[in-house]
TrEMBL record, chain A:
It holds the Pfam family ABC_tran. Belongs to the ABC transporter superfamily. InterPro entries: AAA+_ATPase (IPR003593), ABC_transporter-like_ATP-bd (IPR003439), ABC_transporter-like_CS (IPR017871), ABC_transpr_MalK-like (IPR015855), ABC_transpr_MalK/UgpC-like (IPR047641), Mo/tungstate-bd_C_term_dom (IPR008995), NA-bd_OB-fold (IPR012340), P-loop_NTPase (IPR027417). This is Multiple sugar transport system ATP-binding protein. Residues 6-236 form the ABC transporter domain.
UniProtKB/TrEMBL annotation, chain B:
It is found in: Cell membrane. It comes from Asticcacaulis taihuensis. This is Carbohydrate ABC transporter membrane protein 1, CUT1 family. InterPro entries: ABC_transporter_permease (IPR051393), MetI-like (IPR000515), MetI-like_sf (IPR035906). The chain crosses the membrane at residues 12-38, 77-100, 112-132, 159-182, 203-225, 268-286. GO terms for biological process: transmembrane transport.
Length: 372, 304
């Protein structure tokens, strides 16, 4: 049995000669929640609208539930969409909003009422059915928008930045609700966001888009552990990965040596093709650095700024001899450290990243196994 | 003088509002009150105002017995009840068409608005008279097509038709307001409806029209008020005839005052027209709770 719900095959889209989507192929499996993430203008919303049928691809093919829907009308694709603005009909009650699609379909009123009620109970909207959208809070409107999609029992749910109009605390809460809902319903979903935290926490699979192309697609932790390139490395993770300019010195079978202004650093690394003397970027996540004593560790510098979040502390360290901006080091919440302190840092070589001048990853650490 | 004191100065402030205040008092408030006082007298245009006698409600009381007034009132109501819905429907139709996203649509919008810039003017009414004259454009066209001509302005029913058409021809200002209203409806509502499978026609009835009711309401009030006051058309094209079939109330008011010199009676007629318009407006305002939907509380930003 075919388990793919959505297949995009070499899809492109141009708006008056301007290429917004430059050949995207991907597959969404049944029950999967796939998140499109990327900076604004990367084409993620356009890609979602292409799946929804609100835009028509310039070339390529789109398949949903085994049917070619490349040029099908939005209502004939088995998709339901939750809009960023919610797109609730302002003159209809919650009940009418949720039941709108069923009413269009010509379903008997009594049946609509039952279905709407069931969906409303799932979303804790039961007591709000007779309200107009303007009498609802942001989170409630959001739930109505989701209910309107749910009631249609679509093959695929599409979410277009559904949380971006909510304030921070509500966003976190709704994120958990959506995750819970997805776990309960097991509905195939495509979710667009610019927020990498949303992507990390919700996705079964993340698709990182940039400039109309897929930079990398895979499970969240795979993207985190093994970013294919600098873009993904710096986009995924918060605070972001520290990038240091280095030159490649040499490599043997399972390690690579790079030269820095603070001397050579050797990292365990396999499958790296290295040209000695070439420029490269060393990528260090804040948590793969740790404090050590003088004479130990590979890097040293002075503390610029300390952010204490309680459970953890972020230290901004200006490295000696580096032009790069201060690097961020994640430390214990109670760490005894002051601004202007000199610190010595040890690198967890297994978790360090190396990127060539072209931005592509140079090999990988031996313990991060390739999938299949 | 410092910045703060010029704002605090009463004299400067009064000076700024003086043009409006003087204009309002002179051209609105004074005629308003004067006409009411005149309507209670038997003032005649050729006599000194001092010769007029106070006759109480006599002008008003005698109105119903005046067959011309009854005829005029009937014609006026007919004119208003036919033109207002027709014009609103026509304006809305054109606005919906002009709201399509097409190449060069701006040109069409301008072209369709043009008649409204010209429409109300005396010159166009004169043109209209030639268009519908017995040897006018319409009849020449009919002859050319092999039909007999119609005496457009000479028959009561067709004369009314021609001045109604003149009014419909000026749909532009209502159309522009509708167009603005259509533009204000968020695009994503139609996208959501597309996904829900609603046809364009159903989208119009279920989304566009309900969300357009505030604009419809505004246009309705404006059109009611304007239609009751129509003067140019019947005055220039038909002169109120034939057989008073296009004798709208404003034309009767004008003729009573400046043709028959019955200043008092004419003023009373003005006041009756004023009360009729006020009643219809009030009725419309009262009724809006049943059919006008105000969505302005919709705030997409900022959840709480």
């Amino acid at each position: 049995m075919n388990t793919s719900r959505v297949i995009l095959d070499q899809v492109t889209k141009s708006f008056s000669g301007h290429d917004v989507i430059k050949g995207v192929s991907l597959e969404v499996k049944k029950g999967e929640l796939v998140v499109f993430v990327g900076p604004s203008g990367c084409g993620k919303s356009t890609l979602l609208r292409l799946i929804a049928g609100l835009e028509t691809p310039t070339s390529g093919r789109i398949e949903i539930a085994g049917e070619n829907v490349t040029y099908a009308h939005p209502s004939k694709r088995g998709v339901a969409m939750v809009f960023q603005s919610y797109a609730l009909y302002p003159h209809m009650t919650v009940e009418d909003n949720i039941g709108f699609a069923l009413r269009i379909k010509g379903m008997p009123r009594a049946e609509i009422k039952l279905k709407v009620r069931a969906v409303a109970e799932t979303l804790q909207l039961g007591h709000l059915l007779h309200r107009l959208p303007k009498a609802l809070s942001g989170g409630q409107r959001q739930r109505v928008a989701i209910g309107r999609a749910m009631v249609r029992e679509p093959d695929v749910f599409l979410f277009d930045e559904p949380l971006s109009n909510l304030d921070a605390s509500l966003r976190g809460q709704m994120r958990v609700e959506i995750a819970g809902l997805h776990a309960r319903l097991g509905a195939t979903s495509v979710y667009v966001t610019h927020d990498q935290v949303e992507a990390m926490t919700l996705a079964d699979k993340i698709v990182v888009l940039n400039g109309g192309r897929i930079e990398q697609a895979g499970p969240p932790m795979e993207l985190y552990r093994r970013p294919a390139n600098l873009f993904v490395a710096t986009f995924i993770g918060s605070p972001g990965m520290n990038i240091l300019p280095v030159t490649l010195a040499g490599a043997d079978r399972d390690q690579v040596t790079v030269n820095t202004t603070q001397g050579p650093i050797t990292l365990p690394r396999v499958n790296a093709r290295v040209v000695a003397g070439a420029e490269a970027s060393l990528g260090l996540r804040p948590e793969s650095l740790s404090l050590t004593t003088a004479g130990q560790g590979q890097l040293s510098g002075y503390v610029n700024l300390i952010e204490r979040l309680g459970g953890e502390t972020f230290a901004y360290v200006a490295l000696k001899g580096f032009e790069a901006p201060p690097i961020i080091v994640r430390l214990d919440g109670e760490v005894d450290l002051r601004v202007h302190d000199e610190v010595h840092l040890a690198i967890d070589g297994q978790r360090a990243h190396l990127f060539g001048a072209d931005g592509l990853a140079l090999g990988h650490a031996p313990d991060t196994k390739e999938r299949d | 003088m410092s910045g703060a004191s010029i704002y605090a100065s009463r004299r400067a402030g009064s000076l700024y509002i003086a043009p409006f205040a003087i204009g309002f008092l002179l051209f609105t408030a004074f005629p308003f009150i004067a006409s009411f006082i005149l309507s209670l007298t038997d003032a005649r245009l050729q006599d000194q105002l001092g010769d007029a006698h106070f006759i109480g409600w006599h002008n008003y009381a005698g109105m119903w017995a005046d067959a011309t007034f009854r005829k005029s009132l009937g014609v006026t109501f007919f004119y208003v009840f036919v033109t207002v819905p027709l014009k609103l429907a026509f304006a809305l139709l054109i606005a919906v068409v002009l709201n399509f996203k097409l190449r060069g649509i701006g040109l069409f919008r301008t072209a369709f608005y043009l008649p409204s810039i010209l429409g109300g003017s005396v010159a166009i009414a004169v043109v209209w008279r030639f268009v519908f004259a017995s040897d006018g454009l319409v009849n020449q066209f009919l002859h050319g097509a092999g039909f007999g001509g119609i005496n457009w302005l000479g028959e009561p029913s067709t004369a009314m038709f021609s001045i109604i058409l003149l009014r419909l021809w000026q749909f532009g200002s209502a159309m522009v307001v509708f167009l603005a209203g259509l533009k204000a409806i968020p695009e994503d509502l139609y996208e959501a409806a597309d996904l829900d499978g609603a046809s364009r026609l159903r989208q119009f009835w279920m989304i566009t029209l309900p969300l357009l009711t505030p604009v419809l309401f505004f246009n309705f009030i404006m059109q009611i008020v304007q239609a009751f006051q129509e003067f140019n058309g019947p005055y220039i094209i038909t002169g109120g005839g034939p057989m008073k079939s296009t004798y709208l109330l404003p034309l009767m008011i004008y003729e009573e005052a400046f043709k028959y010199f019955n200043l008092g009676y004419s003023s009373a007629l003005s006041w009756v027209l004023f009360v009729i318009i006020a009643l219809f407006t009030a009725l419309a305002f009262w009724s809006q709770r049943f059919w006008v939907f105000y969505a302005q509380e919709r705030s997409d930003k900022g959840g709480h």
